[in-house]
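User: Hi! I'm working on a homework problem where we have to compare a predicted structure to a textbook description. Could you give me the structure for the chain below?
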Amino acid sequence: MHGMALVYKRGLPAILEQPGSAIGIPGVALMWVAVLPALLLEVLPKALRYDTVKLVHLLAPVGYLLTLVHIAAQLSLQVKLRVLVLVVLTAMGLLGWLATRWLVVRGTKTVKVVSAKVISDASGQHVALEMLAPWMSLVAGQWVRLHVPSAGMVGHPFTAFAGREKGVVCVCIKAQGKFTRKLLDADLQDATVRLEGPYGASPVLPALRWSQAILFVAGGVGVTPALSLLPLASVSGHKCYLYWSVRSQKLFEYA
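Assistant: Happy to help. Predicted structure tokens:
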């Protein structure tokens, strides 16, 4: 609204003559472009791929930076308290984003795939990965973001559970999208991938304080959270029930 009012008052040619003012136009445009995919997915959930949305969203901090330069340029022309406060608040927001990205990069580490299996039958195909990540403190019910450069440019989130051996983190993925189908063709045995996380909190731990029994209802590969939550609940002495609708005999045997 501020930009539209300024264009109406001064005219676009006058604004373009001042680099500090003109740089705000692409800044706002980039921020709008970055959020449009998310708005589109609210109406058409399958219109865009996950990778596309994540990559386009990276335009937002670039637009934010250009907008900050625009506001700082206005401050150099006329020192006003409200403009100074706006510069400080905008800079703090950008620094907060950079700090978040630094924490994400710091928490993303390279791991070795010690087992890569394809579970395939008439009901579909699944990829079961076991990765050696002794540094990861995984709590039942948490998820990780898996980065496989040969399959995609961005990481994808999957529920993780502890393997039978200490320090092993497992994911079981149904091949139904472009990224997950590329995992079927990738030779991941003994390969190195990157894991980010873990994220989330266990939904079972709060329930253990007041419930007498825990009921799990799952369908297909959606049983993966229960693979770690069931042992946690059963050890506490609670009665546990699992209702699992599954068509794949091989997936049933894997679990």
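For your comparison, note the following. The chain is about 45% helix and 25% strand. The longest helix spans residues 81-106. Good luck with the assignment!
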